[in-house]
TrEMBL record:
It comes from Clostridium isatidis. This is 1-pyrroline-5-carboxylate dehydrogenase. Pfam families: DHH, DHHA1. InterPro entries: DDH_dom (IPR001667), DHH_sf (IPR038763), DHHA1_dom (IPR003156), Oligoribo/pAp-PDE_c-di-AMP_PDE (IPR051319). Residues 238-322 form the DHHA1 domain. Residues 16-160 form the DDH domain.
Length: 324
């Protein structure tokens, strides 16, 4: 595996750098990308976002979020490097790189990463990709010792990533390094209260109704060890909203006493998207990998193309039965 020192030298030598992440980017993907984007611009690099996706409303407070317009789908002419963040495999990149001839730097923390880059740095001990980006920015010469507006904006992006990928520092992936980095970010002026309010206290009335509708139809299975939530596209149409990110909805299922595994199956235009979350020692990554997905031991996902909700449920439960 390549080192952060090598990656920093490669970036310093480059002038035009594209940055992207996985499809349906979550807080870690977005925060990591925007932190690197703003950091490289501090170093006078021509850095820009490549994104098929728009950034969700609750992350729009981060500097640079409005640049993900869904219109820059592939690297611009003259791009020397594309950095892909928080993305385990090539097919899930939120960019069209099929005709790109330059270098790809793959930075991630997922065990299931396919190492598709010309340069790869995968730190499976990192609670979030943002931990790696923080260390990379330090290698690039950006100091998190003194507060100023530019550094505070970068730190806000990174802190947001840490909060979202650790369940607000509740998950078992949190380490002493996670807290140390969070402490350094806080010391340069991060407003953690503002971040929490934007992330968790900023739902529209329609989104709250969606949450209620989803939870109203929750099912307990396998003697109360498994909770299942299904969200058809029709829910969004009824409420007049894009369903978007549902990580907040699946977290409610894990709050049920006795639950070991929470499953959320969301209907999308060309199939179904499955999210898996677990407590204790249940490894959802193996289930996801068996169905072509990936992730972490306690949080994983799968996209099942051209598979409806009922078929997706059958496939997932066939795998769960092998374990339970």
């Amino acid at each position: 595996m390549n080192s952060l020192e090598e990656i920093s030298k490669t970036l310093i030598k480059s002038k035009k750098i594209g940055i992207t992440y996985h499809v349906s980017p979550d807080g870690d993907a977005v925060g990591s990308a925007l932190a690197l984007l703003n950091g490289l611009r501090l170093l006078n690099k021509d850095a820009y976002l490549i994104s098929k996706d728009l950034i969700s409303e609750n992350l729009q407070f981060l500097k640079g979020s409005s640049e993900a317009t869904g219109k820059v789908l592939s690297p611009e002419d003259g791009t020397e490097i594309v950095v892909v963040l928080d993305c385990g495999n090539y097919d899930r990149i939120s960019a069209d790189l099929n005709y790109y001839k330059g270098e790809i730097i793959n930075i991630d923390h997922h065990v299931s990463n396919d190492k598709y880059g010309n340069i790869n740095y995968i730190d499976i001990k990192a609670a979030a990709t943002a931990e790696v980006v923080f260390m990379l920015l330090e290698k690039l010469g950006i100091s998190f010792e003194e507060e100023n507006d530019d550094v505070r904006e970068i730190a806000t992006c990174l802190y947001t990533s840490l909060v979202t990928d650790t369940g607000a520092f509740r998950h078992s992936n949190v380490t002493s390094r996670t807290h140390l980095i969070a402490s350094k970010l806080k010391n340069v002026g991060v407003n953690n209260m503002n971040i929490y309010q934007n992330l968790f206290d900023n739902n529209s009335f329609e989104k709250m109704k969606l949450i209620g509708k989803a939870l109203n139809n929750i099912k307990l299975l396998f003697n109360g060890k498994v909770a299942l939530i299904k969200i058809p596209i029709s829910y969004g149409k009824e409420l007049g909203i894009e369903i978007g990110d549902t990580s907040d909805i699946i977290s409610f299922a894990l709050q049920i006493k006795g639950i070991e595994l929470a499953i959320l199956i969301k209907e999308i235009e060309n199939g179904s998207k499955v999210s898996l979350r677990s407590k204790n020692n249940f490894d959802v990554r193996k289930i996801a990998e068996n169905l072509g997905g990936g992730g972490h031991v306690k949080a994983a996902g799968i996209t099942l193309k051209n598979i409806n909700l009922e078929e997706a449920e059958d496939k997932v439960f066939n795998e769960i039965e092998k374990v339970l």
